[in-house]
Every structure is written in C-alpha cells, then in structure tokens.
Design goal:
With 162 residues, the chain is mainly β. The protein has no helices and 15 strands. The chain folds into 2 domains: 76 residues, Glycoprotein, Type 4 Pilin (2-Layer Sandwich); 62 residues, OB fold (Dihydrolipoamide Acetyltransferase, E2P) (Beta Barrel), CATH 2.40.50.
Length: 162
C-alpha cells in the first residue's frame, strides 16, 4: 500500500507491506521492520528496532491524525494514477502492484526460492517495491529484465509451487 503523510507542510511518500504480524516500511530507499500492537481502540504501541513508540490515532475529515510525542501527523492514502480497482490479490499472485521500472532481478529461471525471498525490485516515484515469493517454489519464467518498464497488473515472475 502506498501512503503519504504530511508534517510541517511537507509530504512524505511511504510504502507499507504487511506480512503476518510485522510491517515492512520502505522510505527513502530504506526498509524498516515494524511491529505494532493495538493497546485499545485508537492507541498503538509500535516497536521500531530497539525503540518503543506509543501513539494515538483519530479520524479527521479526509485523513487520519496520528499523535506521537507531541507531534501531529496527517496520514492519507494515495490512489495511484491510472490504477484500476482490482479484486483482492490471491496467494501466489505475482502481478506488479505499481507501474514503474525494473531495477533489479534477483533470480534466474530454474532457481529454487523460499517464501519471502526477494524476486524482483520495481522502482516508481523514487520508491522501491519488493516482489517477494509468496511460497516455496521454483522460478519457471521471468517476464522482465532490468531497466524494463512494467505496468500495474503485469505478471513479474512465474513460480511453480513446491
């Protein structure tokens, strides 16, 4: 999911991916692993590395307001330009969630991969999105090479499930 947040009249673009009980947040070409626990409705305890952060979240008219250590952050979901509403992705769906450019292909045809392995990296709007293996498998086809343009919904890599 792509979101932006506004703080002191500056907008920051962030990519958030949830896997099990962890969130992987990509900001400024750096990935952060975050764990979040809801203490009670609207109150979160967030673990970022060794830091524990408590915050309160409320609904505004068009955004959510996040209160952290005296600061207020306005968080808004970003709709991708030209993106069509699509059905929910199913396990094994390796279609591109964004339109962008392939910056790294981490696998070759015939490679064995484990669930969670990075298969491909796509760059869009100066952000990188990691395509990960949804299950253990074998790479049967790679549909793009580095520097290729990719459109939202195109299949990145094909895997045979083990």
């Amino acid at each position: 999911m792509f979101i932006n947040y506004e703080h002191e009249n500056h907008v920051y673009n962030v990519t958030v991916e949830r896997r099990h009980n962890q969130y992987f947040i990509m900001y400024d070409n750096t990935e952060y692993t975050v764990e979040a626990e809801e203490l009670k409705p609207g109150q979160l305890k967030i673990k970022l590395g060794d830091r524990m952060i408590k915050c309160v979240i409320t609904e505004g008219e068009t955004e959510k307001l996040v209160f952290v250590a005296g600061d207020v952050f306005k968080v808004k979901k970003v709709e991708l330009t030209g993106a069509k509403k699509t059905k929910k992705k199913e396990e094994g769906d390796l279609s591109s969630p964004i339109s962008g450019r392939i910056v790294n292909v981490k696998v070759k045809k015939g490679d064995n991969v484990k669930k969670g392995d990075i298969l491909m990296v796509i760059e869009a709007m100066k952000m990188e999105y990691l395509i990960r293996a949804p299950y253990d498998g074998k790479v049967s086809k790679i549909n793009f090479k580095e520097k290729d343009q990719i459109e939202i919904g195109q299949i990145t890599v094909e895997l045979t499930k083990k």
